[in-house]
Amino acid sequence: MMRSRVFGSCLVACAMLLPGGTACVQACIEGALFTNVGNDTQDRYFHRASVLSNGFVMVSGGLRLQVFPSPSLISLTNISFFNPSTNTFSASFTPLGGGGPVSPVLATARSSHTQTTLLDGRVLITGGNVNAVGTNPGPPTASVEIFNPQTGLVAAGPPMSVARSDHRASLLPDGRVVVSGMTTWQIFDPNTTTWSANFPMEEGRIAHAAIVLVDFAGPGQHRVLLIAGAGSAPDSLELLNPDAGTSTPMLSMLDEGVDDLAAGLLDDGRVLIVGGQSMITGNTLNTTYLYDPQSDTIAPGPVVPNRAGGIADHQLVERGRFIAIFGGEQEQAGADIELNYAAVFDRATESWTWNGVMNHVHDDFASATLADGRVLLIDGGVPFLGVEGPSRTVETYVPVMVPKGDMNANQIVDLSDLFGFVSVMLDPGTATAREACAADGNEDESLDGRDVMPFIDALVAP
User: Is the omega angle on the peptide bond into residue 190 within 30 degrees of 0, that is, cis?
Assistant: First the structure.
């Protein structure tokens, strides 16, 4: 396990270990490092992104804003690729199977679609809005495209049974993809490149959240939880069974119907539900919930900190015991504000452990977690002449971790930390959240004698 006595090196160590390493995933987060990287090749929002098998990030579609000769939204066919080694974007891609660079584009310009990297490396792109004009993003489409990184080519895939936009795609551990939205859901099988029958949902919904749950029903029996969304019951939850093709309504409900919310799976199997836009008032909310799918019980969580005006259209990134949220928008009384907001929730304390700001505002944007643990925050809406316009600004996020043994927060572990450590061990109830995290050397979320040797290790580490 990598160890560091100094604060800056801890950042590097954690970045190298995330998301696969457990040491820094389970450490406490006390801040964030946001770094600007190379701009995207195209101003865009309502686009999608995913990580390819070679570690590059593929960004597709979205909308741009035409100002002259008349203001209008324009649907995009553009595809760009982010190279994490150089922190740059390019429209060209070198096929993994050999051959010279190519510059693939979508056959159908689209926004608010889904993009999923399949287990075999191909990228599934489904639905979205097409033929934007004026302020209208255009009607939804059933069309599907598949990008093959081996050849660098985009080809037409089998269409869905119905047109969908602002829908959700959920990758199952066995490689299938559950697509949900409007009033139905389907399953894409990459082995046969075919769609299942169209199954009915309990409630119609778009702009909802969809979470692949742990297989609490039995080995391999994964379920997809659908949460809220604009439609017939925006305060409801339902559980999709991909093997049976059935949907079950949950007894638990949100206090108020919302769309444009976000949700993520914590390491204990519960689901954190964050924010959204009220279907009653149109205002964004700062409410959160903790939902237990095994018992079908829901409880209020701590409100999003320093966001009295609420948050919606934000991106959410799962990090084991932590969940980070970024950007989005606030809407109150019809006035929109694009956000540079960021915050981190800690399951161990059921509280927000940090909140702050990004370098730039990002609304209706995309994110992707890189192999080195950085989170790439891509483009999105920014204020422009009194409206929201697209951008090509990109930045990365790395969590700032609490160094183990650093009791006095001076960014180094030395004898000056000994008194604080002994005090915490003698009376754990007096420890602040940061002191408890620094003292919990074996990361078992308790302060006891088993933390002594990890503290000594940190103290004598070179």
Answer: no
